[in-house]
Amino acid sequence: MDTFDLHPDLVPAFHAILRKARRIVVFTGAGASAESGIPTFRDAQVGLWHRFRPQDLATPEGFLRDPALVYGWYEWRRAKVAAAEPNAGHRAIAAWAQTRDVTVITQNVDDLHERAGSSRVIHLHGSIFAARCFDCGAAYKLPPPSVDAAGTGEAMDPPRCAACNGLIRPGVVWFNENLPQREWAKAEELCRTADLLLCIGTSGLVYPAAGLPQVAAQAGAPIAQINPEATDLDALADFNIRGTAGKIMPRLVAAAMQG
Asked: Could you confirm whether 125 is annotated as catalytic?
């Protein structure tokens, strides 16, 4: 395993892999959006939110126990995402897809990959901009996020479903819920057939999504990880690149495009 920080240059072996790879899977976690100002679950929360464990705000049980608290927290997050901009890492991945077969598999519920220009994005954990009825599952069209209300950290009563009067919930995958079957099956297939798996800003702790690098490794794909800190993926990765996506990805993509 080679460990390097891309300064001054990529190691020759990784250069060769970048130039040769044609089917690339980019697997992103919360760290990929952190540079855009999107708080992660492990960040200290502000205002009201620091008094609660994220797990209490991201479970069906937590929602039923206090719907206004959970819904308000997600509206605060949705407002944060809407106000954010894609960072250099998002834009570099989108640029790479102009010359290679690049698919993004993300654990993030934001839309920053799409706004940066990536068209092939698989969301394993849903989208914060989608919503549905807790009871009947009917889709619900969300209004633009209320930045003023969400920014105060206040609880917000969720809307009601027009079909069954059930509570409207965020369209994200909560703890103890299954991943969307179609997206998961496609993600596994892509990892089995990739020439390169690039893991960016993911801790490797949240399963089953964290098992995708194992799928790629068993299929023989080289794995590179970009993360400022050591993670559970260090031992599996062929290359560990210490740094943030915004600093590393533009240089990495520039090197890849030389091939």
From this structure: yes
